[in-house]
Amino acid sequence: MKRKICFITGTRAEYGLLRQLILDASKDKSITTQLIVTGTHLSERHGFTYKEIETDGITISKKVDLKIKGDSSREVIQYISEGLNGFSKAFDILKPNMIVVLGDRYEILAAAISAMISNIPIAHLHGGETTEGAFDEAIRHSITKMSHLHFVAAPEYQKRVKQLGEVPQNIFLVGGLGVDAIHRVELMKKSELEESLDFSFGKRNFLITVHPETLEKNKTPKDQMGELLAALESLKDTKFIFTLPNADTNNIQISKMIEEFQARHPYSSKVFSSLGQLRYYSTLKFVDAVVGNSSSGLTEAPSFKIGTINIGGRQSGRLKALSVIDCDFDKNQILRSIKTLQSKSFQKKLLTITNPYGAPGAPQKILQHIKKISLNNILKKNFYDL
């Protein structure tokens, strides 16, 4: 009998990582592939990115609408509640043999809780990582403890999952999914990309993404974004491509400030709610650096031999290539980091950068395990003591 594997995605970035794994699973005759979309995929303000999934030819089995509107803590808690209810109903209808989730988002937490209580085995991707500046950190480790199979991107993360008490035989080192996705995509030519974006690249170009630091109390998201935009405004001969933040608390203020910046600089900046995987990776090929606090600057940008200016503490604790320059949300620190980025010595160093998140091949490794591993008694977990 075919094993029913249910993938769950809630954001544009996470879908970009899962995409090839879902496509490979859908071609495997031993698997019935299911897909539940949720989170910002179903939000108009975030670009209705479920349409990108449909464009890829992937069938959406169920939609769990969290009814995302605002960005307060109370509203996020309500979204989790909507998710718990929606996922439990979806699982009751789809009856998967296993769910596959990635990362650390609150909608994924709701899916994991619903699956755990419904006695559905959970395979968790990209566990063991740390993001000390956001509550995603606690969510990721909580999902690890609810999960039964673990697919990690690096030896350090493998060790950390084991440290959380997970049995070593259920922890699989497969590498980062982003590394594989980059090698699978045929990137756009510069002229083709410029036409698609309605944007002409300049002498120097930055791709900018800033998400809220949900644990930061000393500076508000408005203050942090103000420091970054003040630094950008002082730059000459530079163009900016912004992607809007995810649906964390206080994301609306950041989005508004970005849109106001673009209105002041219509010829040098462009704003997108979502670029989609192909345009995003193609943009990485032609920009000089990734700026902000997106995990992509650490996990994917090194594969393009470009620098990353990683601002603030959101990504604190993650593995970082030598292409990453850390600084605070401070105008002067950001400008010094840009000066370092442009130096001949740093540009020379970029030519030898290797991505610490491994080599291509993660989807195939994951698929082999999730379709063959015995699920008998997998729900009864033993705590592994070091």
Quick summary of this structure?
The chain has 386 residues and is of the alpha/beta class.
What do you see in this structure?
By secondary structure, this protein is of the alpha/beta class. The protein has two domains: 3-175 and 361-372, Rossmann fold (3-Layer(aba) Sandwich), CATH 3.40.50; 190-350, Rossmann fold. Helix content is 42%, strand content 16%. The protein has 15 helices and 13 strands. It has helices at 12-27, 50-55, 73-94, 106-117, 136-146, 155-163, 177-184, 190-197, 221-233, 251-264, 276-286, 296-299, 331-342, 344-350, 362-372; strands at 3-9, 31-38, 62-64, 98-102, 122-125, 149-152, 171-173, 204-209, 238-243, 269-272, 289-292, 307-311, 324-327. The protein has a seven-stranded parallel β-sheet with strand order 3-2-1-4-5-6-7, sandwiched between helices. Helix 9 (221-233) links the parallel strand 8 (204-209) and strand 9 (238-243). Helix 1 (12-27) packs across helix 7 (177-184), helix 1 (12-27) crosses helix 15 (362-372) and helix 3 packs across helix 4 (106-117). The two termini are 38 Å apart. The mean pLDDT is 94.
